[in-house]
Amino acid sequence: MKTFNLTQVVTFPARICDNKGTLIDSIFLDNAKFQNLSVHPFDSGLSDYVAQILTLRNVTVPLQKYIHTSKTRIKDDKSIAIFESHLREVAWDSVYNSEDVNEMFNNFHCILLRHFESSFPLRYKSYITKHNGWITKGIKISCQRKRDLYFVYRHLNNPQLKEYYKIYCAIFRKVINLAKKLYYDKQIGALL
Known about the structure:
Blueprint: E1 2-3, E2 6-8, E3 15-17, E4 20-22, E5 28-30, E6 37-42, E7 51-56, E8 67-73, H1 77-89, H2 93-96, H3 101-119, E9 122-128, H4 137-156, H5 159-191
Antiparallel strand pairs: 1-2, 2-5, 3-4, 6-7, 8-9
Helix pairs in contact: 1-3, 4-5
């Protein structure tokens, strides 16, 4: 279909149910802007829906970095000495001369917090996160193998192949869960 210089680039069924394929989602692109592209199906194996992977070549897109910021307070001997010095110099009259317990506490809390904030200032530290460190080369290969098996069994309609695919998926899920557990256990162990 070509209209307004747009072309539908998905030519395969996105949903297969009872050996019937339907094209649910469509991707339309401008022919003049995007000529070097490829579209292929991606099946996660979780449903009867097949996602579409669109690859545009010779297109520059700025990379998004996963930058996180953490807050820490400087707590060293010098800042502790400054904090103690500030507390010694405070006139605690507003705390001791009050009749109301709530007012006493609020006055004490305000004084303490003000000197705490000035003695132990917040420092912001930025770091870039690396996502999915548990994904190994073997898992990537197994993922591709699972995808290939799915396409073969889907087109051949062989019950033995379907059973093999289901067993492969179950084993693959266990491998992924174990890889995640080992990775995050190691991360937590490094913190302790």
